[in-house]
Every structure is written in structure tokens, then in C-alpha cells.
Amino acid sequence: MRYLLLISIEIFWKLVPESKRPKCLYKTTCSRKIYTVTKDHGFIEGLKIALYRFKTCRPGYSLFENPVTGKKQMLLADNSILPEELIAERYLKKQFE
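-> C-alpha cells emitted (97 positions)
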């Protein structure tokens, strides 16, 4: 199953140009993260990451600056908070320029 998931992601990368892929909220894209975790830790861990990213990497997010720390953060659709270090640069630049 591990190899099936890895091959599926590789096919996705080859068939869908980067400009046509969904824009990921995370600095490390969802497909790259799932691929790396699956390759290093197996199918079950890759599937867990895929489900987590499916729940969190979607519209309904909100960017804000934490008033205590001064760091930028993102409130995701599932109400979890993404720290600045994990947010894709394009969202930080768009919101805080």
C-alpha cells in the first residue's frame, strides 16, 4: 500500500502542473509532506497525515498577529493554530505587506 500511495503522488506531480495544483496553506505542500512521511514511516502514518491535511488545509482560515508574541499565526478551519514557521510564504506576504 505504501508504494501505491507514493506512485499516486508521483503521478499527480507529473500530470498536474504546479500552476494548476491547489494552493497549500502550509510551507511544505500537502503532497510533499504526505510523500515524505509515507516514504519514511509507512502507509499508516502517511494516511494519518493525509487525513489531517485534508481537514486543515482548506478555506476558512484566518491570518492574525498574536498580540502577546507578535508572531503571525493562522487559525485553520478546524480551529487549530498554525505557527508562522509553517505558513506558506505567499499567504504571509499577501496578508501582511
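The CA atoms of residues 34 and 50 lie 6 Å apart.
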